[in-house]
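Record 1 of the preview.
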Amino acid sequence: PYLHDGNLVTGWSPWEYLAPGQHVTLHFPQAVELDRIEVQTLFPQQPVRLALQTADAAGQWNSLAPEANAI
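->
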């Protein structure tokens, strides 16, 4: 619940470094428009590539960018 509560003091952690196969899923009750998604890490780690996907009304997943961005 604290992953996206809008409070900069709260946070969420899987208690491990980012690794292949990890994901975060957010469900919204209706379609929303986002102008950015920001990922912040507290611990230094190797650069990782993140993929951003969205699901349509039928539940079909679609990539929003053809290539994952390295952070």
